[in-house]
Specification:
single chain, about 400 residues, alpha+beta, 7-stranded mixed beta sheet, two-stranded antiparallel ribbon, about 70% helix, rod-shaped
Amino acid sequence: MVKLDDMKSKVRDLVKSEQYIDQEVSATNIQRLQRFAVIFALIHVAVIVILWPYSVGATSTEEVWRNSIIILHSIMLVFSFLYGIASYYLEAKQAMETRIAYIIPKLVSFCYLLFGAVVCLCDQLVTGGISPFIIANVGVAVALLIKPIYAVINYTIAMIFLYHALPLVQQNQELLVSAQVNSLTAAGLGFGVSITLWRTHIRMIKQKEEIKRQKQELEEKNIALELLAAEDCLTGLLNRGQFIRQASKEIADMQRQGTAACIILIDLDYFKSINDNYGHPAGDKILQSIARIMRHCLRKTDLIARFGGEEFIVMYQGTLQEGLVAAEKVRLAIQNHCFEFGSKRIAVTISAGVASVLPQGSEMFRDSYVSADKALYCAKSNGRNRVEMHDGDGTSDAKMKNVSGGFSWQ
């Protein structure tokens, strides 16, 4: 059963190929026709030049042979010029996937096989060999990539034509039989070379496509790994390391441009008791919800990260006062949000510390983080569920506390 399936698969490959293979083969054939048009044109010209003066002392039979060969090569010279121009045009217009681009190589191969057969018939006037037909069969197989199903048709028609036309020009019975047998051999040889080169080239195309696919998969996996390395797997926010890298870069840009920024440090109040009372799955869901709330309340340009455990950090582009307003917006949104886990509703609040990023010193991010952490400690010490700020000199005299309808300065 396995061998039968393999055989069916091979037959399908010979009869039908995938679209990307047809496109690749078409492009290859068009490029080859450009080169072979020049080579074959030179061959046709050379034969015409050699035979043109060959008339002195020739018999009538030889004269007929000479004139016939010159006429045939003249026709093929014009034909090579035409398909050469067509090939250059198709490549220039990037039209190698059109129907005409698929047809031309098949037409050229068929015409050269018939050309070899007709020249062979003419040669029977002076010799009993079929060298032109053998050369045409092998030459077409090497020059062009023809799908096996079309190759079978082309080689069979050319062989049948020659086989049945030989008795019309070859009267010697021994030479006739020899020529007919050799025509069968030539057609078989040509088709064998054609199918071998076809399968070899198709295998190369498939390997190339597989390498391309594997490369694309590798790039996608690398991107995924980069995202995993940059994101917190639970919340989808930036992780600590990626936040520090991006924040340090933005602080350097801020220092050059003279713009203001601040650090907002947020910590959930009594988060341990939430895990203890409702379980870690509830805690995880709350962390995910808070990440969504922060994305909604803050701007896309603000860097947001889960800094560790229940602690979040924001790099806010703006003044300290604007950062306080943004932190208070987040605090109120979380306080007013209904966190649900199963049938249970869980009240959640946060404390936040805000500190300006001062455009000076070699450790600007570290210094700003330390200041924001001090402000957060003050918020925790002063009752939680509030926002505190650090003014940069070790104090936190300017604070906000929750009042009806908003917040007030202290």
